[in-house]
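Quick note —
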Amino acid sequence: MKIRVLGASGSKLPGFGLTSFLLDKTALIDTGAAASMLDFDELQMIETVFLSHIHIDHSLGLLLMADNLAGCNKKPIAIASLPDVLDGLRRHLFNNQVWPDFTAIPDRKRAVFKLCPLRENRTVRIGKYTVKAVRVSHSVPTAGFIISDGKSSLLYTADTRATERIWQEAKKVGNLKAVLVETSFPNRLQRLADVSGHLTPQSLSREVAGSGLKIPFYVFHIKAMFVKEVEREITGLKSSLIQLAREGAQYNF
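Predicted structure written out below.
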């Protein structure tokens, strides 16, 4: 399983890409920077999008991808997530007001996207992957994902404050190789992190310890204006398990 970091930031400033990861060239885990980092030929290779939630820093690429691919894709791209995430996508983004409904343009059969609801905590096959959607604790309905290609598995927490559920599910996975974990704010803004459904380095440290996992944790979603401060605090944790997900990097699991 190969992961390319298209964007790892939780906010947009020059030089910072919004959250998006390319999986084996054919799948995306969230889409923040996808349309700005993938060329047209690469976009045409995408078969599946695992969408954690509809906040724009994670869903923006869907809107821009649709504009690029309409009339050019051979079959609809599957957008997989929890039903209430997909319902929010249809009502708030693909509502023919904010953006055209690209699940029905030009018609359902030839649309850019098709919506694929995932049952919570149930493993299903989508293409060459199996995926389990696990609800996490954010400010809107949000799914973390455990994704496997049969040889190795990856855990993506999505945006979340402290949560036990996803770690409980992770402990059931025998071939889990890595965790992509969010951390957004510095420790001094813990209250803001709690209210908005995010982690700080100190709460990240508690999550890593409580998870019981002894595998790499790659941190993404640091707010661009706090990068240096958060990086210092993560370094101060002195954990060999925690490292930063660097934009442009590729990891093999």
